[in-house]
Design a protein that fits this description.
The chain is an alpha/beta fold. It has two domains: about 300 residues, Zn peptidases (Aminopeptidase), CATH 3.40.630.10; about 200 residues, Glucose Oxidase, domain 1, CATH 3.50.30. It contains 17 helices and 21 strands. Strand 3 and strand 4 form a beta hairpin. The two termini are about 40 Å apart. It binds zinc ion.
Length: about 575
């Protein structure tokens, strides 16, 4: 049964919210700085924030939830690897569930969206000749490409040290200023100047910004026209050791394929071992430590190493299509405006190694999230009056290999991104007892954070900031692919927080299995909270917005302006 504590919700909204919400409203969206184009939405956000209502715990059917997790995380589903038999089972299961709930297809007449993927395996990697040195693949550098080419070679390419490789107008920072890197090889540091200096005034201090992620560094270098990128690995600012870099860059990788066969991406996505980098700088008569120091201070200028780089390798390429899955509960008044709840369906699949088969069932990551989406779809679809806006319930593919399904969806959306009100993403639920807080990832990015605080307060909970902001988790799950297109998006991830042994012992390991001992108290309270937020957005008045200046905010402003002009 689907019930809100205050009914009927439209007539009653202010009465039921006023007593609980005074404090959150005072600090809520009304005070934030907002572009003029968004002003109308802020007013409504400020006045209707009080319309938030709690979805009662009783609406969440935990027995049904448990059954979904158990099924999705069973060996029969083979760890839900994209392009495997496990994918077929998972997609069939999801489509069956959505149909059963009476959801309509989200992609025209289909519940699925085909995502074209390439499986690229680099082979025969030569040594990297740079600065008169000869580095070995694997132990001293890694190199791969996402361009769809069978042979790749880099020949006598000029090498430039570009600091952190960051172009961030909102931080008044451009490592590429007045520099032409077309066809050149750029060498750069990992993370961002804020992390390096711990200066809270620089970027976001210890908390990682998107500029610190390797994905950004390759993207920006491509925009600048660079041919090859080598990121210098250091364990602290990267957040992982060289072993992780070597492992995840030397084997088969999935990639999306654009119309141009990814020709606009960089030719070499590379990493350089710290020892190799030190040798290289010494060889060209420079001091790595000194340059690193300079690179984390404002006013840094890129430095030509006056040397060339060469290397070559071949690729084995297989093409195939994986599937995103989504169903909708069509809105009654504003069906073209979509409010979205999501969880990635994929995990690491079945791996054969040394004659042994290991199935990575991914029970918490992310059968728990997918089961949450179905369970909430079930609860919300039972609401007789329906919702003003359309609710979308989705499960995308290939998150674990780089948010690929989400990226494809965000670039090939069933409705324009300017019609997407908010995107809520669950990645790993708290399957244990309930707790008196909810985690927030990223700070002061979005007005959704205020709504999260309101929803938590209604449950007597508080918001706790992500205790590991240096890991940049806000940039590492599917919602971020939508955020990059400007859609206000938020991550719900309690994975590991309530059970400290989870990360060490089970996360991305074969032991992430379903356990009958799970109490699911955390699932119940979090689904209830997420249900409240969905209900609030689906009423049809609120447009969440970006607070802090960023590429994401610019994207949203542009999309909204285009929409207004139409
Ligand atoms: Zn996950």
């Amino acid at each position: 049964m689907f019930t809100y504590l205050c009914k009927p919700y439209r007539a009653f909204s202010f009465v039921c919210a006023a007593s609980v919400l005074t404090s959150t409203l005072m600090t809520g969206s009304a005070n934030a700085e907002v572009p003029a184009s968004n002003l109308a939405s802020v007013e409504s956000s400020a006045t209707t924030n009080s319309k938030m209502m709690t979805l009662s715990n009783a609406s969440i059917d935990l027995d049904v939830y448990r059954q979904h997790v158990k099924t999705l995380a069973s060996d029969e589903f083979e760890g839900r690897g994209p392009l495997s038999k496990g994918e077929e089972k998972t997609v069939d299961y999801l489509v069956t569930q959505y149909k059963k709930l009476g959801l309509k297809p989200a992609f025209g007449d289909s519940y699925t969206q085909a995502v074209p993927l390439a499986k690229i395996t680099p082979k025969n990697i030569s040594s990297l000749k740079i600065g008169g040195l000869d580095f070995s693949a694997g132990s001293e550098f890694t190199a791969r490409t996402q361009r769809i080419v069978n042979d790749y070679s880099l020949t006598n390419s000029d090498v430039i040290f570009v600091g952190y490789g960051i172009n961030a107008p909102e931080y008044n920072w451009n490592d590429y200023a007045d520099l032409d890197v077309k066809g050149k090889t750029v060498v750069m540091l990992v993370n961002d100047p804020g992390f390096a200096s711990k200066d809270p005034e620089l970027f976001q201090g210890n908390a990682m910004t998107y500029y610190g992620r390797w994905t950004y560094k390759y993207e920006e270098a491509a925009r600048q026209g660079a041919e090859a990128v080598f990121i210098i690995h250091e364990t602290m600012p990267a957040g992982y050791g060289w072993g992780v870099v070597e492992n995840s860059n030397s084997n088969t990788k999935f990639s999306l394929v654009d119309d141009d066969n990814n020709a606009s991406q960089v030719g070499v996505m590379g990493w350089l071992h710290l020892n190799a980098a030190r040798q290289l700088f010494e060889k060209v008569g420079m001091d790595y430590g000194e340059l690193k120091d300079k690179a984390s201070k404002p006013g840094f200028m890129p430095i030509a190493l006056n040397t060339k780089a060469s290397l070559g390798f071949t690729n084995t390429i297989e093409r195939a299509e994986s599937q995103n899955v989504a169903g909708i509960l069509e809105g009654t008044d504003k069906p073209e405006e979509w409010v979205m709840l999501h969880a990635h369906w994929d995990h690491l699949g079945k791996v054969e190694k040394n004659g042994q088969t290991t199935i990575y069932n991914g029970a918490v990551d992310n059968a728990s999230g997918v089961a949450g989406v179905i369970t909430l779809a079930d609860a919300l679809s039972k609401r007789e009056e329906g919702f003003a806006r359309t609710l979308m319930f989705s499960a995308f593919t290939a998150e674990e290999t780089g948010l690929l399904g989400a990226d494809y969806f965000a670039n090939n959306p069933p409705v324009p991104t300017s019609n997407m009100v908010a995107f809520l993403n669950i990645d790993g639920m708290n399957v244990n007892d309930d707790v008196d807080y909810i985690l927030q990832y990223g700070e002061s990015y979005l007005s959704i954070e205020d709504d999260l605080a309101t929803a938590a307060a209604l449950q007597g909970r508080t918001v706790k900031m992500d205790p590991r902001p240096q890991n940049g988790l806000f940039f590492r799950s599917d919602h971020f692919a939508l955020a990059k297109q400007g859609v206000p998006s938020i991550l719900f991830m309690s994975l590991g927080d309530t059970d400290p042994s989870f990360i060490a012992k089970r996360y991305h390991k074969a032991d992430d299995d379903y356990l009958p001992s799970w109490t699911l108290g955390g699932v119940q309270q979090d689904l209830s909270l997420i249900g409240s937020m969905l209900n609030y957005y689906a009423q049809g008045d609120v447009w969440p917005y970006w607070k802090r200046d960023s590429d994401f905010k610019d994207k949203r402003t542009q999309a909204m302006e285009v929409k207004k002009a139409k």
